[in-house]
Automatic annotation (TrEMBL):
Name the record gives this protein: Carboxylic ester hydrolase
UniProt region (Disordered), positions on chain: 1-25
Family statement: Belongs to the type-B carboxylesterase/lipase family.
Gene3D superfamilies in the record: alpha/beta hydrolase
InterPro entries: AB_hydrolase_fold, CarbesteraseB, Carboxylesterase_B_AS, Type-B_Carboxylest/Lipase
Domain (Carboxylesterase type B) ranges: 11-467
Organism listed in the record: Microbacterium radiodurans
Keywords associated with the record: Hydrolase
Top-level taxon in the UniProt lineage: Bacteria
Enzyme Commission number, as recorded: 3.1.1.-
Pfam families linked to this entry: COesterase
GO molecular function, one term: hydrolase activity
Annotated SUPFAM superfamilies: alpha/beta-Hydrolases
Amino acid sequence: MRPDSASAPGPVVATGAGPVRGGHRPDGTVAFLGIPYAKPPVGELRFAAPEPVTPWDGIRDALSYGATPQRGDLGETLIPEPSIPGDDTLSINVFAPGVPSSTDSDAAGRPVLVYIHGGGFVQGSPASPWYDGAAFARAGIVVVTVSYRLGFDGFGLMPGAPTNRAVRDWIAALEWVRENISAFGGDPGDVTVAGQSAGGGAVLTLLGMPAAQHLFSRGLAISAALTNVPPARAASLTTRLAELVGVAPTREGFARVDELTLLHAQRELEKQRRGSVLSSVRRRLADGLSWGPVIDGDLVPQPTLDALADGVGGDKPLVLGTTDDEFTMITDGLTDRLRRVPAALALALLGVHHAARVRYVRANAPKRRLGTAAFIGRYATDRVFRVTVPEVGRARARATASTWAYRFAWASPTLRWSLHCLDVPYWWNRLDAPGVARLAGDAPPQALADAMHGAAVAFVRTGDPGWTSWSAQPGSTRVFGAAASGDDTGGTDVDGATADVDADGYASVAALVRR
C-alpha cells in the first residue's frame, strides 16, 4: 500500500477503494500508475481467484508503476518490459486526457482502451515505455494497461485451485474499469479490449467467453497467439512441474514451493521442450504454448473458434492481423544448414503431410525463393499467428458486427523482417520510446505510425478502423507499410505513407485453414 494523505500537486480521483493521486504530464495528459484492482496474490491468495482490494485511508499516490508478476532481469527482449519487485502485482495504469470536473462536460464519457500485454503468458510487463498511453490520451481516449498473473501461477491446472486465474484477473480488471473509469473521464459502456501476441490471444479468449460479454464493446487483436490448452495437457504439465520441484501436483503441494524455485522449474521445463531450433519449432507447432487459458468447461467452456462460430461475441466489432514474418528471425540461424534442403522436405521434417505440403509450397513461391530457412520461418508464422485471421473470419461469418483484417508488412532495417513486436510502437505512436531503434532503425517512418495509430483511434472511437471489412468482402485486408518481405503483393509505399487493401491478404495460408 502507498497511501499518503499529505498535500501534493497532481490530480486526485476517487475510486471505489479510495482516492488516488496521479501526475500531470508536459503534453497536458495525466497518468495514474500502479492502482491495485485486487488484493496481492500471495499467501493464502497465491492460487486463489482475485479478491477485491482492501480500501485505504487518505490519498494513495499513483505516481509509479506497480509491482509486476514478471520477475527478474530477462535480458534484452524485443519489447523492453521491466520487472518491478513487490507483492501488489495486480494493478492497472490509467492514461487520460485530463480529469473531468463538474463544469467540464466534454471530458466525461470518453471511449476507453484496455490493453493486455503479451509475453507468451509467461513474461511481459505493463510498465513498458512502449505501452505509455499518452498518444491515445491526446486523441481523447482513456487508456488502461493491465497486469495479470503469469505462467503456472496464472494458468496452471491443479486440484484445489480455481482454473484460469489469469483470465479471472483480466475479468477483475475489466470489472474495475466498469466501476471506476467514469471518475477518470471514461465511458464504462464504451470499452475496447486490445492486446498483442499472448495479449491478442487474451482478446480473442475474452471475445469467446460468455462471462465477459458485458465488460467490453469491441476488440483489437494484434498478432494474436490463440491458445486453448486442453485439460489433459494442462494436467500433464502440472504433473511434470510437480516432479521437478518434488511436491504433490496439488494446490497444497505447490503452496510449499517458494515463488523463485517454482519460476526456475518452469524455465527448466521449457528448456526441456526446446532442443535444437528445428525441433523447437516442430514442438511449438505441435503443442503450442505451455501455459495459457485452459478449456475448463466453466469460465472458458469451449475452444475460442467454436465459441465464435456459435455466435459468442458476434455483436462486437473486431480488428485483427499480424506482421508478415512474426517468427522468421528465429529460423535465420538455420540458413546454412537448410541451404540445400528443399522446402517441401523441410516441411516433411516438421510433420506436414504430403497434400498440405504441396498446397503450401505452391501458395508461397515468393518466400521459397528467399531460401528454406526463410520459408520455414514463414510457415511457423502462418501456423502460430497468421492462420488465426482467416480462421476467425470464417468463424465469425454470421456475426452481426464486422471483422476487419490487416497485415503489417514493413520490414525492419536492422533485423531484416517484418518481425514480431515491430508493429507495436506504430500502433501506440511511440517511435521515440527506448528500444524502438533496435527494431525499427534510427529513422522509423512517422507516416506509418500516423496511419496505424489513426486506424486504432478511429476504431476505438467509432467501431470502424476505416477500410473494407472481411465481413463485407472475405479476404479483404489492409496492408500497412511496404510489400511483405519477399512477397510480390501488398502495399507499395516503402515509407509507409499509405496503406493499400489486398483483395485476399491471407490467401497464402489457405492451405493451413484446410488442414
